[in-house]
Amino acid sequence: MVALSLKLQDLIEEIRGAKTQAQEREVIQKECAHIRASFRDGDPVHRHRQLAKLLYVHMLGYPAHFGQMECLKLIASSRFTDKRVGYLGAMLLLDERHDAHLLITNSIKNDLSQGIQPVQGLALCTLSTMGSAEMCRDLAPEVEKLLLQPSPYVRKKAILTAVHMIRKVPELSSVFLPPCVHLLHERHHGILLGTITLITELCERSPAALKHFRKVVPQLVQILRTLVTTGYSTEHSISGVSDPFLQDQETCGGEEVQILRLLRILGRNHEESSETMNDLLAQVATNTDTSRNAGNAVLFETVLTIMDIHSAAGLRVLAVNILGRFLLNSDRNIRYVALTSLLRLVQSDHSAVQRHRPTVVDCLQETDASLSRRALELSLALVNSSNVRAMMQELQAFLESCPPDLRADCASGILLAAERFAPTKRWHIDTILHVLTTAGTHVRDDAVANLTQLIGGAQELHAYSVHRLYNALAEDISQQPLVQVAAWCIGEYGDLLLEGNCEEIEPLQVDEEEVLALLEKVLQSHMSLPATRGYALTALMKLSTRLQGNNNRIRQVVSIYRSCLDVELQQRAVEYDTLFRKYDHMRAAILEKMPLVERDGPQADEEAKQSKAAAQLSEAAPAPTEPQASQLLDLLDLLDGASGDAQHPPPLDPSPGGALVYLLDLPCAPPPPAPIPDLKVFEREGVQLNLSFIRPPENPALLLITITATNSSEGDVTNFICQAAVPKSLQLQLQAPSGNTVPARGGLPITQLFRILNPNKAPLRLKLRLTYNHFHQSVQEIFEVNNLPVESWQ
Amino acid sequence: MIKFFLIVNKQGQTRFSKYYEHVDINKHTLLETEVVKRCLSRSNEQCSFIEYKDFKLIHRQYAALFIVVGVDDTETEMAIYEFIHNSVDVLDEYFSRVSELDKMFNLDKVHIILDEMVLNGCIVETNRERILAPLLILYVRKLKGSIFQTTWIYRKC
Question: Which residues on chain A are in Cβ contact (under 8 Å) with B131?
Answer without folding.
Answer: none
